[in-house]
What does this fold into?
Amino acid sequence: MRKVTVPVSHQNQRAQSTPDRLISAVEELLGQRGDLDPSLREITAAAGANVAAVNYHFGSKDALVTAVIERALAEHARQQLIALRAVDANPNGDVEDVVRAWISPSVLAADGGTTLIPRIAARVVSGSSPELRELATSTHADTYTLFFTLLAHRLPALSTEELVFRITLAATAVAGMIVGTFDRSAIAGNPPVPRGENTLDRSVGFIVAGLGAPPTPPPRG
It folds into this structure.
């Protein structure tokens, strides 16, 4: 009798529960698309499930996609927190260590090409999805609290307002980098500078210099 070999993907699919298959299908689809909105038909076909399963386990297709996006954001925040807590536990950690811990997961996500973070960041930066921005803010609340606290202790000359302003500028720059804005921006006729092996070091250096600049003088009366 001829032995039939089942493809590994099918074996894995059978071993997974239906909710896990649906989540895996959405993660795979989002990784292949330029947007964050796969169709219900695409999801069920990829998961080997039916529409009723989506509604039963998640309530709707949108709720399923949101669950996948939230999981990606939560994992990104978790990686940042681990790195920041390591700096917090190091009495010799300086501003550079704090910044490197904060942006490393983002740069690695952009360079890896398999994470949803750059696509999510692109939607957040565009302002096209207030709901997604709110989700990103809530999942990263602890990250930003610790990041702000670590910087405030190391940059006492900056007021709270000034530090928040500078962190916001830094976050905007990091977001622009990981979504590929830098890869497409020509400055004064010069070609774009693509990300490379030293992108992380260059980014850390730039952000550290900006954060540590002398306090902005008050406006003249």
User: Anything to note?
Assistant: DSSP finds twelve helices and no strands in the chain. Residues 12 and 21 are 9 Å apart (CA to CA).
